[in-house]
Amino acid sequence: MFQTKQFSCEEIARIINGKLIGSIDHKITGLNRIEFAQKGELTFLANPKYEKYLKTTNASCIIVPETISVKLADKKAFIIVGDPYNEFVKLLKILESEKDKNLNYVHPTAIIGNDCQIAPTAFIGPYCIIGNGCVISDNCRLHSRVTLYDNVIMGDSTVLFANVVCFDNTIIGKNCFIHAGAVIGDDGFGYTERKDGSYEKIPQMGNVVIGDNVEIGTNTTIDRAMIGSTIIENGVIIDNLVQIGHNVVVGENTAMAAQVGVAGSCRIGKRNRFGGQSGLAGHLDTVDDVILIAQSGVAKSVTEKGVYFGTPIKERIKAFKIETALQQIPDVFKEFYKLKKIVLEKLKLKEIPE
Q: Cα–Cα distance between 238 and 251 in angstroms, integer?
């Protein structure tokens, strides 16, 4: 549901520069998918396979493409645009900005350390803990139970959702979203092995530096560097449950899907795309424009851009050919045993001699 106000169909059409037709006297109070939308809700049609729902949806208003011919129905409005999906996203962004206006507030249960700089337009939610020397810039939002250790810096309009933890000296750029339960700057997995087989912990003295326009998913962890910085460059998007080790550098506009694991001291190029459950061993590099298909395992540096798959990774077409061949092995064995039986019968043998 909209949290600010109701919208008329005319207002929505004006916002997205669409042509409004049909029954236009609705007040829109919510958004929903076309197959589930109810009276008073707005939806959109972008994928032709959902066109069948035009007849059955209960939505009051539907954003549709210019390429489709709609039949006017009682009690429905249509907004015709060039690209329904992009216009719907545009509307979502506007609604999001409306929702977040005038949130300058510090909850009385928040605990704030010494020498902090907190912009008057920032929002600090219930039970947040902010260490000494932190900087929280204009229009930042800290939702409930966020914990900032000492000397954390947040750029303008960055949002930390509930239970995010940022350890000492973490630096976060502008317009970032860090989702619930993410841990930024905890100790890296650094140990030396003693002669008796036990382990000695190596002090982790570095930090994490996150660029602008970065999004980090729920329960993702990014370890601080042993010395220096673990770096997440501008425009990186990271899904839920991703692990990034100490001293890693992730190049700008890289995307990682859920459950990716990047071991320590890797250097990831720009515009890489890592599918779910991909993993990189430590101290590896990838060049720009590398794509790893889901569940790929990287055991050595990737020196040429391209699409890779498998464990260890291989160029995509080669990997698919190998997978196809492996699938055929049971049939090959069947043919082999048939041929073996024929040969033994011809030679009147019980078994082929060695």
A: 12
Give 103's pLDDT tier (boundaries 50, 70, 90).
low
Per the annotation, the verdict on 246 as an active-site residue is yes
Q: Which residues contact 312 (CB under 8 A, 6 or more apart)?
A: 297, 298, 299, 300
Task: Provide the whole-model pTM.
Answer: 0.85
Burial class of residue 156, CB neighbours in 10 A (0-12, 13-18, 19+): middle
**311 vs 276: CA distance, rounded Å:** 14
Q: Which of 107, 179, 246, 283 is catalytic?
A: 246
Q: Please answer whether residues 264 and 282 qualify as being in contact, where contact means their C-beta atoms are separated by less than 8 angstroms.
A: yes
Q: pLDDT tens-digit profile of 318-343?
A: 888 888 888 889 988 888 888 888 88
Which domains are present in the chain? 7-99 (3.40.1390.10), 164-312 (2.160.10.10), 315-354 (no CATH)
What's the distance, Cα to Cα, between the start and end of the chain in Å?
Answer: 77
Mean pLDDT of the 155-184 span? 98
Nearest Cα to Cα of residue 6 among 29, 25, 23:
29
